[in-house]
Amino acid sequence: MQATTFKAFAIANEIDLNKIAVHCGIRKKYTWEEPLILRNGVLETILRKSVDDTQQVLVFSFGSVVFVNHQAKEITDFLRYIRSFEPQIDLQNASPFTDDYSLHAEATENIELTDEYVVVPEHEDFYPLLISTVLAKSVALERIEEQLGRINDKLENLLERLEKGKLRIGNKELARTTAQIMRHEYNSLSYVMILDKPDITWTNSNAGQFYDRMMEFFELNDRYNILKNKTEVLYHIMEGFSTISHSMRGLFVEWIVVILIVIEVVLSVLQIAGILP
Q1: Where in the sequence is the domain holding 94, given as residue range(s)?
Q2: Same domain flag for 227 and 161
Q3: pLDDT for 124-164, tens place per residue?
Q4: Tell me: the pLDDT tens digits for 193-240?
Q5: HSE on the CB side for 76, CA within 13 Å?
Q6: Which CATH number belongs to the domain containing residue 20 in this structure?
Q7: Which of 56, 53, 46, 55 is nearest to 24 (CA)?
């Protein structure tokens, strides 16, 4: 059997599946837990060319798109189609967050997992969905890890300012950085739904075992926990910045109060001395 190829992209933080479904004439309300799967006639309408039964595109609400058995031109055309619904998508910067994989069905007793392909004894209908789901989550985590790196760079700049004695940090800057951390936490810990499994894994034991092996091989749970721990560290650092900022403002207010008291005492002394009326 010919190998099934997969190419996954993380192109956005979020994609509205229902907008695409309505445009494609699909009468179904999509939730965060399930991908939008496009194939056959719907896919032909989008790509404006004929496709075979093995080709499909899976679009995930957390911003990932997985192409099954597609050529480069078809991938480019579809991504441009997606951008008509999500204008903020930057297709020029989509390539860093991508992964290629393939599925091979051969005469073997055990499933063989590698970095580039998986070999299974026989083809099952659930393999493309489960492989696509794992790849989609993996590239989404790559995108989130890169975003976390940018937040760390910003915090490093703030730390350098503190080391130079520049203790005052504006409320807007604190709020903006905290919002970035919260957005990062929302995208990684909530929206990507690392801990959620496709429905087929609950009803088919073989599918469940295969999905668990794929998750373990791609280290999704470990990467999830690392991101979670790093996020907690970021919050701890921001608490330190906030404490220093509030302390500096409190000290400033205290000095203002002391200065006002001194001025009032001086004015009173001058009045008693008859210097002031």
Answers
A1: 4-124
A2: yes
A3: 889 999 999 999 999 988 888 887 777 766 666 666 665 55
A4: 777 888 889 899 999 999 999 999 998 888 888 877 777 766 666 665
A5: 4
A6: 3.30.310
A7: 46
